[in-house]
Write a structure and sequence with these properties.
The protein is α+β, with helices and mostly antiparallel strands and about 450 residues long. It has helices at about 20-35, 45-50, 60-65, 70-85, 160-165, 175-190, 205-215, 255-260, 330-335, 340-350, 360-385, 405-420, 440-450, and strands spanning about 95-105, 115, 130-145, 150-160, 195-200, 220-225, 230, 265-270, 280-295, 300-310, 315-320. Helix 1 (about 20-35) packs across helix 2, helix 4 runs parallel beside helix 11 and helix 11 (about 360-385) crosses helix 12 (about 405-420). The radius of gyration is 25 Å and the shape is globular.
Length: about 450
């Protein structure tokens, strides 16, 4: 049975060499089922939507995730190559790194822990949740037909809890250590491209910034504390001078002090797309400095940008870049695009069933969530090819005018292509009454009635 129409097959054949023949056939069924399923993305849901409820060898599909030998890392590299070829064949590549929490419970899930839940917490209310912590790396590119920047996941790794490492007699890895591994990996995959990574304040660690600054083609942009200890570069060690060479120069005013200094010179900067709100004018002040930490006895040269709103609608903030040649406009424009990561996390939960998986096997857990996030990018690639051949991809209504497609439209057009492919339809396209097999009607009815 063919699982995808011919128009969509080119986007998955690149992954075929990494699977055996039998595993690849089962993997295609699960992939198509994950696209068509509504609600939970369990193996059972994928098999039901594909009409395989009566398959006596259903365990073979579970083995694709919990036992079969294939490399998720190799698939990530292929997916990144496809994304770059389609959306960013040249120029600087922008990546976003961020952690997310998958709420899961169960004694058999060994890698789970108790973490801060940012979605349910506020400044006055702190909420913890039990689950799995993931670190995702996404390519931030502008999608022409969406007229917006999308965050396309291609590499997601599990960050187990400290208890997980303690039971195995291993030293726990921090989120920053895992982020450094991802940055190194992407840099090895793309040695001929200039890479810029953006991250939130969780990754504003001097040790991580120092490591990234040593990579010639890679830079990291993140937030800077307003009370950060900034210094001049160390003066040169004079011949015959006694003592060790200095590691830093004179202390500079912190961004917080510069903010309140009436002598500070501010420059107006117009941002074209301010968090999806359109144009906005802000005032900035920028310098280069040495950020030094006494506790870590480490230092890193940075370009920092202090931002304030002339209208006073948001609080002043500071950003930094490990590349001193970056301009304030570049730093601010790139960092603003980071908010699209949160959009991808939310849309993945709404349309791809993140947090609805029910695997208990360690290997299946480590594979399923990264695959679902990667499916977000695969669907985007498929929709890109289909939308270019369609007059419109946006569902309209008398009470709502939608100008550009969103991910819900993208996955809808891919589903429509799968459902209406030639091996499903038995009637001419000119006919108003369409004949369909009873088995297909039952699958569609089942999908509607058991959508939850």
């Amino acid at each position: 049975m063919r699982t995808l129409p011919v128009d969509l097959l080119p986007f998955i054949v690149e992954f075929q060499p990494f699977f055996s023949k039998s595993i690849w056939e089962n993997a295609q069924v699960l992939l198509t089922g994950a696209i068509l399923a509504i609600g939970k993305r369990t193996v059972t849901a994928c098999l039901r939507i594909m009409g395989k409820s009566d398959d006596p060898h259903f365990q073979n599909y579970h083995r694709v995730l919990n036992r079969a030998k294939w490399s998720a890392l190799a698939l990530s590299r292929v997916l990144l190559k496809l994304l770059i070829k389609t959306f960013a064949p040249k120029g600087t590549l922008l990546f976003g790194i961020d952690g997310t929490l998958e709420r899961r419970r169960g004694d058999k899930i060994s890698a789970k822990g108790v973490y801060h839940d940012p979605l349910r917490s506020s400044k006055s209310h702190f909420v913890k949740a039990s689950g799995l912590r993931w670190l995702s790396c996404m390519l931030l590119v502008k999608i022409p037909w969406a007229a917006a920047v999308w965050a396309l996941p291609f590499l997601t790794v599990l960050c187990p809890s400290a208890r997980y490492y303690a039971k195995r007699g291993r030293q726990a890895q921090t989120l920053n250590e895992r982020a450094w591994q991802l940055i190194q990996l992407v840099a090895r995959w793309l040695p001929d491209r200039t890479l810029v990574f953006v991250a939130d304040s969780s990754f504003a660690a001097i040790k991580l910034l120092k490591l990234v600054s040593e990579l010639p083609t890679v830079s990291l942009i993140t937030r800077l504390r307003l009370d950060a200890a900034l210094y001049d570069p160390p003066p040169p060690h004079r011949p015959g001078q006694k003592g060790r060479p200095r590691v830093k120069g004179d202390r500079r005013p912190s961004p917080k002090q510069i903010l309140t200094d009436p002598k500070t010179v501010w420059t107006k900067l117009e941002i074209k797309d301010w968090y999806g709100e359109g144009k906005r004018t802000v005032e900035v002040c920028t310098e280069t400095a040495l950020w030094w930490s006494r506790s870590h006895n480490s230092r890193v040269a940075i370009r920092w940008v202090l931002i304030r709103d002339p209208l006073g609608e948001f609080e002043p903030q500071a950003l930094l870049s490990t590349k001193l040649s970056h301009t304030p406009l570049q730093i601010l424009t790139w960092f603003i695009r980071r908010w699209r990561l949160e959009v991808t996390f939310e849309e993945s939960k709404a349309h791809l069933g993140i947090e609805t998986q029910r695997q208990w096997n360690d290997l299946a857990i480590a594979r399923t969530t990264p695959i679902l996030y990667g499916l977000f990018s695969v669907v985007t690639l498929m929709a890109d090819a289909l939308i270019q051949n369609e007059s419109t991809a946006v569902r309209q209504a008398a009470w709502y005018t939608k100008e550009h497609p969103t991910f819900s439209d993208a996955i809808a057009i891919v589903r429509r292509c799968v459902w209406s492919s030639c091996h499903f339809s038995m009637s001419s396209r000119q006919s108003k009454i369409v004949k369909i097999p009873r088995s297909l009607l039952e699958r569609l009815t089942d999908a509607v009635c058991y959508a939850a």
